[in-house]
Specification:
With 336 residues, this protein is of the alpha/beta class. The protein has 12 helices and 7 strands. Strand 2 (107-114), helix 6 and strand 3 form a beta-alpha-beta unit. Bound molecules: S-adenosylmethionine. The site of S-adenosylmethionine has 21 residues, from helix 2 and helix 5. This is Class I SAM-dependent methyltransferase.
Length: 336
Amino acid sequence: MTVRHDPIPADSSADATTDPAPRPHASAEEVAAARSDTKLAQVLYHDWEAETYDDKWSISYDQRCIDYARGRFDAVAGDQPLPYERALELGCGTGFFLLNLMQSGVAATGSVTDLSPGMVKVALRNAENLGLPVDGRVADAETIPYDDDTFDLVVGHAVLHHIPDVEQSLREVLRVLKPGGRFVFAGEPTTVGNFYARWLGRATWEATTRVTKLPFLADWRRPQQELDESSRAAALEAVVDLHTFDPAELEAIATAAGADGVQAKTEEFAAALLGWPVRTFEAAVPAEKLGWGWARFAFTGWKSLSWLDEKVLHHVVPRGYFYNVMITGTKPLATD
Ligand SMILES: C[S@@+](CC[C@H](N)C(=O)[O-])C[C@H]1O[C@@H](n2cnc3c(N)ncnc32)[C@H](O)[C@@H]1O
C-alpha cells in the first residue's frame, strides 16, 4: 500500500505544498498572543505536544487501541456496512482514531487533517509506518479545504470541544460528505463529567505533589522544572478547551447544522472516576517509578469499570453524568 503526502487532485482548494511548518518551540511573544487567540493557542500547544503526544496519552497502533477506537465507533455506528471507501479525520492529532479505525477495516483510504502542522506530520509518519493509504493536510475544521461531496465518512476524536463554532464545523462536515455519508465524533467531554474530572485531577495533583515533598519520598518527586512546565501546559489547556457538552444540546447542534438521524451516546462514569486520578498521578511522578504492574492495574481497572458502566450503570445513571459523549448522523440524501 502507498502513503500519499500530496494533496488529493480532485480538491481545487487544497494545496499541501503551502501548508505551514510545525512550530514546536514558540517564542514568549507568541505564547502571550495565544492567550487571547484560541486558534494560535491550538497550534502552539499541539505543535509543542506533537512529538511526545502518543507517549503522554499511551496511544498505540496495536490491538489495544484498535479495539478502543473500534469500540467507540461501533457504539454509535456499528450497524453500518464496511468499509467506507474514503474517510476524513478532523483534529487528527497523531492519527489515533482514523488510523486505528482503518486498521480495523472501517475505511479503505483516509485523509488526516489538523490545525497543528506538527500533528499532521506525526499522523502521516504513523500512517506510513503502518503502511496505510493516507494523505494529510493542515486544516481548520471550520473551513475544511476539500470539495463538496468528497467523503463517505468523517470522524473525529476529542476535537469538537476545541472548535469555537461547532455548528459551523458540522455544516462543513455535511458539505464535504457525500449524500448519505456519515459522521462519527467521539471522546468529547460532557459538562457534568468535565466538572468531576477536573476536580479529581486537581485534587490528585495537589495531593501527589505535596506528599512527594516528604524527604523519604524524594525519589517519587519529578524535578521542579518539569512540574512547573506541566502547570504551564495546564494553564494553556484552559485556552484550548472551549466547550463541554450536554448530550441533548450536542444533538440539537448537529440537527441545526442539517444532519439526519442524529444520535448522541455517552460512556465512562465509574471508569472516568478511576481514570482521571490515575492519569494525573502518572503525570505527577517520574515515569520510571510506574512499571508494568501499575500499567496492568490501570488498564484492567479501567476495563472492569467500563464493563460495570455499560452493563449496569447505564441503566440507572442519567446519560449526562457519564464523562464521554459521542455523536453520529448522516448527510441528507439529495432530493430532486
Ligand atoms: C485533544 S487533541 C485530539 C487529537 C486526536 N484526535 C486524539 O484523539 O488523539 C485535539 C486536536 O484537535 C486539533 N484542533 C484544535 N482546533 C482545531 C480546529 N479548529 N480545526 C482542526 N483541528 C483542531 C488540535 O490541534 C489537536 O491536535
